[in-house]
Amino acid sequence: MTNSLYDTLLGARAHSDAPLLHLPDGATLSYSDMAGRVAHLSGYLRAAGLEKGDRLAMQCPKSPQALALYLACLHSGVIFLPLNTSYTPDEIAYFVQDASPKILVTGPAAADALRDVARDAGATLLTLGADEQGSLTDALTSAQPAPDAVACSADDLACFLYTSGTTGRSKGAMLTQGNLLSNALTLTDTWAFTADDVLLHALPIFHAHGLFVACNVVMNAGGAMIWLPGFSTEAVLDALPRATTMMGVPTFYTRLLDEPRFTRDLAGHMRLFTSGSAPLLAETHDQFSARTGQAILERYGMTETGMNTSNPYDGERRAGTVGFPLTGVELRVMDQSGQEVAQGETGMIEVRGPNVFKGYWQMPEKTAEELRADGFFITGDLGQIDSDSYVTIVGREKDIIISGGYNIYPKEVEQLLDAQPGVKESAVIGVPHADFGEGVVAVLVAEGTASPDMEAIKATVKAKLANFKRPKEYIILEALPRNTMGKVQKKALRTDYADIFQTLDHSMSRAGE
Ligand code: MLC
Ligand code: AMP
Fold first, then answer.
1. Which of 300, 309, 391 to mutate to test the pocket of ligand 2 (most atoms within 8 A of CB)?
2. 9, 75, 112, 284: which is deepest, by most CB within 10 A?
3. pLDDT tens profile 329-360
């Protein structure tokens, strides 16, 4: 048995001097450089006692070594668990308790706050900074490289990605080697990636988009990436002339369009821009085409399934749609009684294919709720298929907010707000936000007549929740609107506060640019 995923991404080019990463300081890391790092890290993991099926959690700033750690886990058969760098120690504690990794690698700045979390979960805490320094690097000096990849089958687990639930409790989506490999092969083909491609990589690498869609596809094709630490308009404008392709969330494209220096001349040589993780407004698609002459290719996916659909590479990329099911992926639209709806009607999107995950870690009931016995996954997205077979996402049945490509589960924020002194109840909603697509708003009802202490509440929210989940506006009402069954009418709230961010100049509210 071999390790097809590792061999496909890196093993097959372990001796190639072709560039893999172009770094901000001008240095380039080749495929063989990366393979050397991976062998070294893998040797360390094995000497530390990690075996196939063990877990390693990582909450580190983006760096080449962080990517090497992911690949070293694949090389060793260790399950890789990447965590959003914005998560607070409280949030990390839950993931680490749930997944019981043997090693937790964190940025140096977070180490003190996570020492107890790691100890309580029985994990060894190591550090890895954006500059690649830290105790992991120190530990490597005495490690021997592990030359051979551990044999793995398509059904073996490769990664856990945590995704919040409508109950507020996060679930670890178990992705197999086969899931990741099938998506990498299909997308490379669908989007015509080759060894000549240079992808402008400004996404984070702790989610499916930046790690699996971007890195796996480029590595499978043998291409290179311009490796930026995150999205900054300046850095992207600077790097664009050296790139052939870019993958982004819609916020990347609205920010670029806000910039007059983003012109047809600057973008004209690009082979492909893709968008996903959140709806791309048809208006953004059209503005982008008018400015650059290029049609953004929108695709649709999710943590549990990887990518499901894509607009065509050759053919009409239709604004407002997510294109067609990928090769090997079946997609159907179902009504509430479990029947397929007529063409053009709206229903629940379900998908089946080699990309669909194995289930939620240690949550068989949750798995059974969302993964049908016949293998179809119930996405929670509402959609329709038009007469030309284009799929359109028209809404979501699941109560989530997608802000700048990150998912926020209102329930999780509401549970925290409801527990605060002076708060009787709360409703958390997403409303249009020019920069992030949707912005989080909290509507509170006070306990008694006194107003709650908003400064204290905001401080608690800041301590407990990752920054992207924090409400950007708070409203206090005497009562929440409810229907005759007593259910909170979030739709009415979304209508009432639809304009709340409209008066804000989003370019002024962005720090660091
Ligand atoms: C940052 N902030 C956000 C936010 N990102 N708030 C809401 N939503 C977000 N996404 C906060 C910051 O903490 C800060 O708050 C304020 O907003 C302004 O921050 P900023 O400096 O403007 O943000 P920036 O660092 O530029 O980040 C914005 C971004 C980033 C869009 C570049 O969020 C991003 O990289 N998003 C990509 C998400 C992604 O990769 N998703 C893929 C999921 S996989 P304060 O209070 O501190 O000032 C998936 C499957 C699929 O969904 O289909 O792909
Ligand atoms: P996540 O759980 O972070 O993987 O988020 C997946 C969700 O993002 C999907 O279920 C959709 O609701 C949404 N999503 C991803 N891509 C698109 C897209 N192109 N258009 C609309 N929604 C999308």
1. 300
2. 75
3. 999 999 999 999 999 999 999 999 999 999 99
Amino acid at 392: T
Which one of 468, 472, 504, 513 would you pick to mutate in the ligand 1 pocket, going by the greatest count of ligand atoms within 8 A of its CB?
A: 468
Contact 69, 127 (CB under 8 A): no
- Mean pLDDT along residues 451-479: 97
Å from CA of 7 to ligand 1 middle: 33
Q: What percent of the chain has pLDDT over 90?
A: 95
Q: What's the 3-state SS for 370-429?
A: HECCCCCEEEEEEEEECCCCCEEEEEECCCCEEECCEEECHHHHHHHHHCCCCEEEEEEE
Phi-psi region of 94 (alpha: psi -120 to 50; beta: other; left: phi over 0): alpha
Q: Mean of the per-residue pLDDT values for the chain?
A: 95
Question: Does any ligand 2 atom lie closer than 6 A to the CB of residue 501?
Answer: no
Say which CATH class 190-397 falls into: alpha beta
Which pLDDT score is estimated for 53?
98
- Is-same-fold flag (4-15+26-152; 190-397)? yes
- Percent of the chain at pLDDT > 70 equals 97
Burial class (CB in 10 A: 0-12, 13-18, 19+), 269: exposed
Q: Does ligand 2 have an atom closer than 6 angstroms to the CB of 300?
A: yes
Q: Locate the domains of the chain by residue range.
A: 4-15+26-152, 190-397, 400-512
Cβ pair 401, 359 in contact under 8 A: no
pLDDT (mean) for 357-371: 96
In CATH, 4-15+26-152 is 3.40.50.980: yes
Percentages of the chain per state (helix, strand, coil), in multiples of 5: 35, 25, 40
- Cross-strand pairs, 198: 224
pLDDT on residue 167: 66
| Domain 400-512 CATH superfamily | ANL, C-terminal domain (3.30.300.30)
Angle at CA of residue 159, ends 251 and 42, nearest 5°: 115
Between the CA of 248 and the centroid of ligand 2 the distance, in Å, is 13
Q: Is the pLDDT of residue 193 over 90?
A: yes
For residue 252, which ligand has an atom nearest its CA? 1
User: How many degrees, rounded to 5, is the angle at CA 36 between CA 33 and CA 38?
Assistant: 110
pLDDT in tens, 405-453: 999 999 999 999 999 999 999 999 999 999 999 999 999 999 988 889 9
Give 122-162 pLDDT, tens digit per residue: 999 999 999 999 999 999 999 999 989 999 999 999 999 99
Closest ligand (CA of 399) = 2
What letter does residue 451 receive in the DSSP assignment? Answer: P
